[in-house]
Amino acid sequence: MSVQDYIRERFFPHIWCPGCGHGTVLNNLVRAVETLGLDKNEIVMVSGIGCSSRIAGYLDFHTLHTLHGRALAFATGVKLSRPELNVIVPMGDGDALAIGGNHFIHAARRNINITAIVMNNRIYGMTGGQFSPLSGEATTATTAPFGTIDPDFDTVALATAAGASYVARTTTYHVQEIRKRIAEAIVHPGFAVVEVMSQCPTYFGRKNKQGDAVEMLRRYKEGTVPLDKQPADPEKIPRGVFVQRERPEYCKRYEHLVQAAMTDGAALT
Amino acid sequence: MKPKHPTVICINTDWCKGCGICAAFCPKQVLVMNQRDKAEVVAAENCIACKQCEQRCPDLAIQVIKSPAKEEKEAS
User: In this protein, which residues make up the domain named 4Fe-4S ferredoxin-type (chain B) (predicted)?
Assistant: First the structure.
């Protein structure tokens, strides 16, 4: 099957700005699904609100476009009622870690078998370029004309500490990595977080004098380093698989509980 | 020497938004941005079918179709 078989062509060209990294994530998410040979009917995409969350509408899977930040809460419901389906939740940085911060850490704590893709462009693009909890200190945004004083979250450290059993980071420059990491995350039996650093040339790039999309991609190429080579380059942002561990999965534990309760119930009557 | 069956690069100009990522990262300078700010193939014979443009395109506007000879060589 080609990429075109997985998308809803009637909604194209998409609404994202020229050079938006979210399109590249969409492109390689489809390729990851194609690599795994999954049927379109086996996948549920649950998204919240924001530029990144539009991704669900463009894909020809089962899709659910929900409330801002609450995508993981809806996804938990979908997964618990139909555990055999692959649930993928694409989120923006604000959607995942500001508005949906609580849902994010609790989904990780439960280790429910959901794939969370955090498309981190460090800005609220759809609403006009307000700074987000991932913008980081000294970045300029519409709401921070003199630079923000807020430190940023480290998505990888946060997800790891909260209990996610697969945590990876990559960028939109490293397209092969996006495909590989997303495929690994879908297959992983537990809560999987893939942070994809994605460029927003319209708001983040322009406000922070980072140039156009091409220039921003070059920054990802030069400013990041594979995890194993990071000790030699501590200034750069590491990418790769940070965590891959086994923890009891939530749906399985819930099923055991239901079965135990039914057995005990039968013994009582 | 030009190959007998060159790679075909299809560009969907209705979807292309002219960001220039494909042209900037093409290792063989096969693509350029034209006056209408759309990607255009200028040197198809140089294409090595690495598909970087196809995978990087945020608008899903590029499709690289390898020549049958190349496909066969890769399969074997």
Answer: 7-36, 38-67
